[in-house]
Design a protein that fits this description.
By secondary structure, the protein is of the alpha+beta class. The chain has 10 helices and 10 strands.
Length: 353
């Protein structure tokens, strides 16, 4: 199921642990309480993911016919997954906007991968796309658990409904694409690449849905997710890593844009959500240098590397960068694509081998 043996899906959340850790220390119990409960729930789900990996997940029947197979469930503020089915493929929209957004986001993700890269669902073989909404109470996260998407409603104080930003949905489902292809180790630089690839394709899904060019896009991940009281625009910025938020409660966005500011830490699986800012910025630089629709050239190069079979599970930034240069040359020749990709990595301080 992967190109590297060892099918080891991981538990991936959109809100990094360091953000929730900071929030859990807030003096206001209405802010700290939901953050602490979210951290506890995430720890439980992470353990469940490991157990499922050992025991084995139930088989899923897929039909590779170029059409999505979406199902949205409602947890009704509980934690049993998948919950109660509330909308299936082809069903008309209901009154619950959260359900409708989840359904639409699953479809948008399917559409981008099919139309831009001829990939039939996240596994390339028509895998059904399942999501659960209204998970737990005041749950401040969304995650891919190796089998399905799960969305919290947020606490309304710091985070709003996690189905609001379509790139959050795309980001988490893109973890599934990585799971079924390069299966990058979720630690250190390989883990940061894992996170960055999800940000890249999450951004592309939003841009594709909105019909935006690279110049028109905001290059923000999670815009619209932060509540009005938060001083910030999103969870991350690919255009300017480290500027997404600067808030009294959440602290300052710690993402670096270049290797000069690479963060060495044992937290967050070796800083996977932090150092992802570096390859994120490289993609932004390549995409904006090329102009037009980012999914067509820069996105194609990144997709070629992710799915080409040469990207190792333990790949470092330099390994990935080198493969993008190779992929740009193989697909587009010695032209502006190769130049844009090479210069992007040079600008962020990552050497190509």
């Amino acid at each position: 199921m992967t190109t590297h043996g060892g099918f080891e899906p991981v538990f991936c959340t959109i809100v990094p642990p360091h953000v929730l850790d900071k929030l859990a220390q807030a003096e206001d119990p209405s802010l700290a309480g939901p953050a602490r409960r979210t951290l506890q729930r995430d720890a439980f789900e992470r353990t469940q993911r490991r157990l499922t990996t050992v025991i084995g997940a139930s088989a899923v029947t897929a039909v590779a016919d170029g059409k999505p197979q979406r199902t949205v469930h409602d947890a009704r503020h509980g934690t049993d997954l998948p919950g109660h089915k509330v909308r299936g493929e082809g069903d008309k929209p209901g009154k619950d906007a959260t359900v409708n957004r989840a359904y639409a986001g699953l479809g948008a993700t399917f559409e981008l991968f099919l139309q831009a890269y001829r990939r039939d669902s996240i596994d390339g073989n028509g895998l059904p796309l399942n999501a659960t909404v209204h998970y737990d109470r005041d749950y401040n996260n969304a995650f891919w658990n190796g089998e399905q998407m799960v969305f919290g409603d947020g606490d309304g104080e710091i985070f709003l409904d996690f189905t609001i930003p379509i790139d959050v949905i795309g980001h988490e489902l893109a973890h599934g694409v990585t799971q079924y292809t390069a299966n990058l180790t979720y630690f250190g630089q390989p883990g940061a690449l894992n996170e960055s690839l999800s940000d890249v394709f999450g951004a592309l899904i939003k841009q594709y849905t909105l019909g935006q060019t690279a110049a028109e896009a905001d290059w923000l991940i999670g815009a619209g997710l932060l509540a009005p009281r938060v001083t910030g625009t999103a969870l991350r910025s690919m255009k300017a890593p480290g500027t997404a938020y600067d808030d009294d409660v959440l602290g300052k966005d710690p993402q670096p844009a270049t290797m000069d500011d690479f963060v060495r830490t044992g937290r967050d699986n070796g800083g996977v959500h932090i150092n992802s800012g570096i390859p994120n910025h490289a993609f932004y630089l390549a995409a904006t240098a090329l102009g037009g629709h980012a999914w067509e050239r820069a996105g194609q190069v990144w997709y070629d590397v992710l799915t080409g079979g040469e990207l190792k599970q333990q790949a470092m930034f330099a390994d990935f960068a080198t493969l993008t240069v190779k992929a740009a040359r193989e697909r587009f020749g010695d032209g502006e694509e190769l130049d844009a990709v090479s210069k992007a990595w040079e600008q962020v301080g990552v050497r190509t081998l």
